[in-house]
Please model this.
Amino acid sequence: MSTPGLFTRYPGNPILSATDIPYRANTVFNAAAAAIDGESILLLRVEDLRGISHLTVARSDDGRTGWRIDPEPTLMPDPDHHPEEVWGIEDPRITWLPERDEWAIAYTAFSRRGPLVSLAVTRDFRHFQRLGPAMPPEDKDAALFPRRIDGRWALIHRPTPLAGPAHIWLAFSPDLRHWGDHTLLLPAREGAWWDAGKIGLGPPPLETPEGWLMLYHGVRSTASGSLYRAGLVLLDLEDPRRVLHRTDEWVFGPQESYEQTGDVGGVVFPCGWIHDPITDELRIYYGAADSAIALATATLSDLVAYVRSCPRPEQRRVAERR
Ligand code: BMA
Model:
């Protein structure tokens, strides 16, 4: 079930699955996305038959078909130099940083002590420079804002506390290495809500004149496993610590067979989006059932108009007290 009219699934879905990978792979899912010189790039999470994930680049002229996939893994875990990557690297998000003239990749490094947030930078998606861990375990679902906010870089991430709900947090840094001024950005809801208990960022925040648009996943635990669905949030442009609007309902959820059946059924997990400023089309790339990559399109201005029609958090708090 999804909000009618907001998202359109690409009829050729899924766009990529394990059989498209030129080498032996168990699954491909949860890809980051970037547009470079008219080409669409996906940084795929590929899981091998040991269960360990690495990242591989796929390129396409139209972002839908004709994917050219690197013949070998593009970025492998490097546990000799980065022990925190011993059990793989997963779920990347890509942000273009105009000030540094390079792409930043926030990804999950799977360490012996749990998943943590690591950063790397690249100019060509062939050579990568690791900046190392940004957040200790357990922490994942991170992405950078494309520009400094009040002079500092900002990172959205999702720490997992020892007990209680896992909320989305915001951290600031002067240099992409030292992070502080930690702020709770978006709480998971409680009780019966679709996003109760555990939420996490999807693709990197997208700048619009009305604010930073954020797509996030919410996890509902059920007797037959977890359901991963997505909702929208609008953050204040100048002070992204301020949540302006949040959708009450999820806007995108598993419904097609490739989202319901796979290694982990009932999962849609967006990590990348590409906006075409001429047509206003937004292409959203998402992992489907931890087994394939699928594409949905939306009109960016429609998403912004929809989230702006949803209650401001302070209005909801008043309504819930009744
Ligand atoms: C999350 C992450 C994702 C995965 C999802 C559903 O916790 O580990 O990589 O797609 O679970 O299994």
